[in-house]
Amino acid sequence: MNQLSERERAVLLEALDDEYHAWATYDQVITDFGDVAPFTNIREAEARHIEALLSLFHLFSLQAPHNSWPGRVERYPSLLAACEAGVSAEVANAGLYDRLLATTESPEIAVVLRRLRDASQQRHLPAFRRCVERQRDGGVAQQGCNEGSGRRWRGGRL
Q1: CA 133 to the chain's CA centroid
Q2: pLDDT digit string, tens, across residues 17-39
Q3: Of 21, 27, 29, 54, which is most buried by a Cβ count within 10 Å?
C-alpha cells in the first residue's frame, strides 16, 4: 500500500474525530432523553462510519486514537434543541467532508469520505429536519422521526 502523506494522515484523524464527536453527542442525547429516533438510528450509523474510517487506519497501518468525546459533549435542554443541533452538525459535516476530499489524492480515502458525506446529507440531515418539524408540531419524541433505510458499505450500512 502506498505511504500516506502527512496531510492525508491529518485528513483521516480529522474525519475520525468528527465521527467520534457525532457518536458521543448522539449517545448523550439518548442518555438524556431515552431511546428516541432519529438519534438511536443515527448513533448506529455513526458507529458504522467510525468502522469505515478505522478500516482505512488498518489499511494504511496507522494507529487510530480512541474516542475521547464521551462525557465532553454539549447537552441539550430539550429534544427540539438536540434535533436542531443535529441539523446544524450535519450541515457542517458536508463542508468538512468537501474540504477533506479536496486535500486527498488517495482513491481509497476519497471513496470512504464521499460515502460518509453522502450518508450524512442524504439520510441524517433529512431525518433531523423531520425531527425538528415534528418536535415543533407537538413534541412527538418517539415516533415519526425515523432515519429511513440506509445503503450498505462493506457489510454495514453507512
Answers
A1: 21
A2: 999 999 999 999 999 999 999 99
A3: 29
**Full set of structural domains in the chain with CATH:** 6-141 (1.20.1260.10)
Instruction: Please provide the DSSP assignment of 54-81 as one string.
Output: HHHHHHTT-PPPP---TTSS---SSHHH
| Distance in angstroms (rounded) separating the CA atoms of residues 6 and 90 | 27
Residue 124 near residue 91, CB atoms below 8 Å = no
Return the bridge partners of 157, or none: 152
Which letter does DSSP use for residue 147 in this model? -
pLDDT in tens, 74-109: 999 999 999 999 999 999 999 999 999 999 999 999
What cell does 3 get?
505511504
Instruction: Report the alpha-carbon distance of residue 60 to residue 126 in Å, rounded.
Output: 33
Q: Return the residue matching grid coordinates 415534528.
A: 134
Closest CA to 133 of 48, 16, 12, 38: 38
Task: Name the 3-class secondary structure at 157.
Answer: strand
- Nearest-Å Rg of the Cα atoms of the chain is 16
* Residue 73 confidence (pLDDT) above 50: yes
